[in-house]
Amino acid sequence: MVEKVPTGIEGYDKVLKGGFVKSSVNLISGSSGTGKTLFALSFAYYGALKFNEKSVFISLEEPKDRVIVNCGSVGLDLNAVDQNLFKFHDLASERGSFSSESELSPSSKNPIIMDNLLKYIRLYFGDCKRIVVDGVVPLNLVCRDLKEFRSNLFRFSMGLRKSGITCVFTTEVPFNSNDTSRFGIEDFVADSVTKLNATDKGHQLRVHKMRGSDFVRGNVDYSITTQGIKVMF
């Protein structure tokens, strides 16, 4: 029987039929404002709060102070969770201190080079069970082309799987796009793909694939409330 890792998000685990497959890489995609960061952060937050699992949230595009405010408005108090179980790695603020030249540099110290990031995770977060990489688009900045991005993302994902970590990536797609990823690469590398959509009638999600497990097919409504994300299933 496939071992599952529940997300802790009401209704979403039912759609996933128990959660993500253990030691898998899972993609959450959508346009701006669909709640990608909230879905992904909830996975790490509830991992620590509800399941006592060491969890890490790595932010590449939003600084920690802004994430804390945004999450607080939907009932996720990041300061209330056990800080020994929940870690926030603020690469967005670190990137903000870089020059354009240094951010694009292939230096062994550049944290957005995926091999460097994987080494950092193994060194400082090697005992964690859940990791979120919020915003994989910046990881492409240091790649010469999409071939290199695909190769690096594949190697990064394999490294996380081999470490026994269940991981969530997020990626942004343009408004009204039918694509499930930004570069047409992330969804192939991932074991599962959930696309978030904002419509005139509200928010909907759709799980497009999940390797090794069944899942609920079709569009499912969800809402972002003051008590977190509610998936209506």
Structure description:
The structure is a single chain. This protein has a single domain, classed as 3-Layer(aba) Sandwich (Rossmann fold), CATH 3.40.50. It is of the alpha/beta class and about 230 residues long. It contains eight helices and eleven strands. The strands form two sheets. Strands 5-4-6-7-3-8-9-10-11 form a nine-stranded mixed beta sheet.
Portion in helices: 25-40%
Strand content: 25-35%
Structural class: alpha/beta
Distance between the termini: 24 Å
Number of helices: 8
Q: Give the assembly state of these chains.
A: single chain
Q: Using the coordinates shown, work out and report the CATH topology.
A: Rossmann fold
CATH architecture: 3-Layer(aba) Sandwich
CATH class category name: Alpha Beta
Element order: H for helix, E for strand = EHEEHEHEHHHEHEHEEEE
Strand order of the largest sheet: 5-4-6-7-3-8-9-10-11
Give the CA-based shape. globular
CATH superfamily: P-loop containing nucleotide triphosphate hydrolases
Report the average pLDDT across residues. Answer: 93
Radius of gyration: 17 Å
Uncertain segments of ≥5 residues (pLDDT<50)? none
Biggest sheet layout:
9 strands, mixed
What would you say about this model in short?
The protein has 233 residues and is of the alpha/beta class. Helix content is 30%, strand content 25%. The chain has a single domain (4-231), classed as 3-Layer(aba) Sandwich (Rossmann fold), CATH 3.40.50.
Element layout with pairings:
Blueprint: E1 4-5, H1 12-15, E2 20-21, E3 25-30, H2 36-51, E4 55-59, H3 64-72, E5 86-90, H4 91-96, H5 100-103, H6 114-124, E6 130-134, H7 146-162, E7 166-172, H8 186-189, E8 192-199, E9 202-210, E10 220-225, E11 228-231
Parallel strand pairs: 3-7, 3-8, 4-5, 4-6, 6-7
Antiparallel strand pairs: 1-2, 8-9, 9-10, 10-11
Helix pairs in contact: 6-7
